[in-house]
## 1
Amino acid sequence: MPWRVSSCCSTTRIATPTAAPTDTTGAWARSRTTTCIYDYEGGNSLAYPHAGYLWDLCARHGITYRSYGEFVFNGPNSDDTVRAGIEGLIGHVAPHYLGYDTHYSDIDRYRAWLEEFDRYDRDGALPQLSIIRLPNDHTEGTCTDRPTPRAHMAENDLALGLMLERISHSRYWKDALILVIEDDAANGQDHVDGHRTVALAAGPYVKRGQVDSGLYTSCSVLRCIEDIFGLPSMTQFDARANGLEGIFRSKPDLRPYTHRPARIDLEEKNLAGAFGQAESDAMNFAIADVVPYDRLNVILWHSARGTEASPPPVVRSGFALRLGSPAPDDDDH
């Protein structure tokens, strides 16, 4: 029963305009700062993948699924019912689990998820695939009177830990797989490549306490889910992606997990005059991934490391391939 618990994702709190264009997917909506939502979350039909989304593949092959905050439209108030942002998720979204909105706590998202999960644990019928979004590790930079970046991150980590603990104490733990990936690396600093990011896995059949430094992509996670359910590949990218076979063990370890309490004050606010505060206040954090990340990354670095610490240089890796026959005087063979 694979899960994908997504620790970082993308949309915004939105309300449907009174005169929205006709669109069965509800792709157009009004947010606090714009009249069109994120292109890659139902906002633009040109961005729809030709083979559909993972949930479309599941629907075609009888796999049950549910979305918690992914591809949903939030209401104007935090206690409003959310609705599916795309046709394939209609009837498959948790109505009280908010999508992207950094003013709404990931701990409150955990509580909304927990209410449903407790019911599934009691009554059965948990969907085979759950896509769960915890978006607040996007942070809000050093915006005035808003949580510090490390408070946002600690809240995000705590919500994930609480979810994992609850799943591991449920009737579903013996068959569970939790895969955790970031929305994207946001071109951050990294000594190998700025596009590199972290992935986590947990479950009875996952090796514990090990680091796998193999070359994987987000498509590797997609392929893993497809392989477990016996689903066909959707594109050449997941068909050719490296699989995750190396993370698994043959015999289950059913020991449950216990979350670690936050070691940072989740109510910690940015101090007045914090580095980059004026720039952060001018950025649009109401919609995911529209801020200038190269600049935000510098602000986040100084928030975490201090104003005297210089950010490391941006690193980009790649492979240079030469096509055609070598020149006559070329020593390569």
Note: The domain at 2-305 is CATH 3.40.720 (Alkaline Phosphatase, subunit A).
## 2
Amino acid sequence: MTKNRSIIASFLAALVCAAATYRFYVSKKDHNPKLEGGIRFYENFRTQSEDPSAVAAQDVVGRWKDDLPGFWQGQLSAPANLRIIFRFTEKYGQVHAYSLDQGGGLIPATSARYFADMQELWVVFDSVLGVFQGKLLPEQNLIKGVWTQAGRNFDLNLKNGGDVPREFRFLNNKVVTGPSQQLQEMAGFWSGEVGLDNDEKELVIVYLNKVSNDLVEPMVFLPNEHEKNKNFPVGIRNFVLGGGDTVKIVLDDPLDSNNAIFEGKWDREEKTISGLISYDDTDDKDPLVLVWSQNYPASTHVLSIDVAEERRL
């Protein structure tokens, strides 16, 4: 590990390994021309889903909010019969998937389109080279669809159960620890800059998403790495709010089995979390101050690394 290693390395390593960790179902025999054809299908589909001419009109955005937000559950028709949760947020194009039988880690959609008139949906997941195509059947509270990956198609029908699924609560409780009321107070965006090896600065945004009145889901955004799609979050391993308003965030680095760890203190009046990032294979510690905002932050909301250093001292 090099000195002053960027926290970004840990985040991006998770994305590099996501295809292996969260692949729904790809058997060894898929490494053949059929697989290559599947990848071509994915790449072509992804290009179509990002067609600039397909930018959602205001009425389509409204229909998305009316038709889709919430938790949709289904079971992939693969030999393993994997249980899947799709979570559609109210923000157009933002979809999060969770494979319950494969660890349940966050799999963010990197692009999505909704054809409101036909109530048809396309969702693309870069990290697993997967595509979901579905049709909303509102009278059945169902999205009837097909999951395509590695040249293979699997039926995937998603049912909206209304409330936050028990399975999602179980997953989230393995990640988040702390008093529910205080966690609710922290809901929102926490952003700051961390120094890189080349003396540049990288924006990091920790989002505590208020899922319900008693549940928050933590995730991380790296807008400098994903300028084209700022809706592309990364899941985290642990978020702990301890006594004395101490905060600890643990991020996996699956490429070399190391962790990036942020430890800080929440200042309720200043609405900041000031602390240090460390790594389990080096003694280096880098300062980071996260500043709260209700909405996705602009760079003007972010304290510089110099201010973070002053606060640490």
Note: The helical segments are 7-21, 33-49, 58-67, 166-175, 180-185, 305-312.
## 3
Amino acid sequence: WKAGGSGAVGGWLSALRGRCVLPSDTFLAKGSAALEKLEALCGEGSENTHPSKLLQLYTQAVLDITYFEESQLVDEDFPEETSLEKVKELTSVLSEPEDLVTECSINEDPINILGTELVECLYWRRGALLYMYCHTVKERSEWLQENIAIFKKCLNDGVHYLMKMLSFRCPLRINEDVSLQDKDTARLLSEGIFSDTHLLAMVYSGEMCYWGLKLCGEGEQESLETPDPAPDSGPGCRSHSAPLDFRELGKSMLTKSTCS
């Protein structure tokens, strides 16, 4: 960390600070306040501050500032000419906290540095953003016909993000120690549903799998990753190359969510 971690934070801070030059908003104000606190800590000398504290502050700023920008996209109904690049940009920014952990040469899993809730939120926000984007553009028949590969990639990446978000906590194992009055709660926890956001992630995943089957057709979902993707090839800088079985995964997610 001392060899260059604080410098890495400073570089990422400058880029994030530029995103605050936007209309006033509660989330922007929160993000800006987090940045100011982070800059003050860096100015005092990061040797006296644990890296996890700095990285958690940075992550919270990323989440607050990008939330405002995502809300603008939703309010504007994802403008056809510009929204794909904006979605790509936001998914990239939401990947930065984990990248920064690596760049700072911290030999720890990001979840041990940032904490489970923040890491879950980073994946949830990317998956939910792609869900909302797909929910909107699937109604644009001409666009969909011309960009079906991009649409499929958005679905594939979005489901991967949501499944990753659901994987960070171990489902509760139900046994004889679970009392009767806790039975319903225990059943939810045994399915990995620890909050309404976890439940919504399951629903979103199931819906996206359904759209994949309905609009992209049956058959194995091929990888959409390319060695050097074109700028307009998809929403994320990191393609999730593992093919998805939309039918089986969707059935599993929707069964769990409806039974809950």
Note: The CA atoms of residues 206 and 252 lie 8 Å apart.
